[in-house]
Amino acid sequence: MKIVVIGLGSMGKRRIRLIKDILGENVEIYGVDSNEKRCIDVKNEYGVVCVSDLSILLDEKLIDAAFIATSPLAHASLITTCLEHGIHVFTELNLVDTDYEKNIALAKRNNKVLFLSSTMLYRKEIQYIARCIKEADCSVNYTYHVGQYLPDWHPWDVLEEFFISKKATNGCRELFAIELPWIVNAFGRIVKYDVVKSKSSKLPIDYADNYLLLIEHETGHKGVLAVDVISREAVRELSVFGEDIFLKWNGTPHGLVCKNLKSGNMDTINLYDDMQAEHIEGYSSNIIENAYADEIRNFFATINGSDLPRYSFTQDKEILKLIDEIEAD
Fold it and tell me: Would you state the pLDDT for residue 277?
């Protein structure tokens, strides 16, 4: 299989490493990035042939699949180009719905997979939590805080050059796009919310840096969601509670605990062994590689017809519409 990874920043490099781990010798990987230093680094680290322009590969190579990991506002045109050349597409979060309908139709017409990353749906803890909620014979409430100080996201990058500093693709918007798909999947469609937001930091950004939402779901479940880019400690703290359920999760592989209603104990739920939960140095402890690898496997399985994606552009369009409304309120 011949694969091109477009965008060789931290996420592009992560995808290259995981693709090589998954496919081994059965893959030929090319990289595309206009940044010469990134190309050199990736070539030296992974032995990947890198070019500055995608058209070079499209003219000379028969590419089977593309992984798009550029800044989000560049995704739409790259997706279109790849689909027009008969290439299956895996894209990181788009954060805007530019050309969604066009590319959905193009993928269908050319019989190609159009796959959108939604990594939290692949976390074992999220899957366990969703099962617990569905099995609970009661309505549940939850509180969930997700935040990290914006300059700490990628300290190796210049903040003003990182897409999370731009209003259209801002850091809070990215956090909403990461978290809302699994929240809706686990608790149900959001039918009502109230929002309080502000810009309370001295960060050089022109958007709200913290949000508090009071949410009602069509299932009757309710929650409080706090999202921010000002927390000086990277945090992912969830509590779910109801008459038949109480659980807490701190975002880490071994940080999920549930109340055992028979024994009265708080049981730690171990879903990984020490070898399974893979963490990359430099990232928060609540970010592990397993889910990133699992969604890549899901992409390849979708291509060969043995599985279906867990998230779609159609679902994402609804999530982005909701985020637009939250930002506008």
Answer: 47
Whole-angstrom Cα distance, residue 48 to residue 29? 6
Q: Which of 96, 116, 136 is the last residue of a domain?
A: 116
Residue 173 in contact with residue 323, Cβ under 8 Å?
A: yes
The helix or strand, by DSSP H or E, that contains position 317, with its residue range, turns out to be: helix 313-328
Strand 114-116 relative to strand 88-91, pairing = parallel
Note the pLDDT tens digit of each residue in 153-205.
988 888 888 999 999 999 999 999 999 999 999 999 999 999 999 999 999 99
Q: Which two tokens stand for residue 245?
A: 């359920």
Q: Would you say the pTM of this structure is higher than 0.90?
A: yes
Residue linked to tokens 């366990």:
128
* Residue 291, domain member (yes or no): no
Range of the domain at 233: 120-285
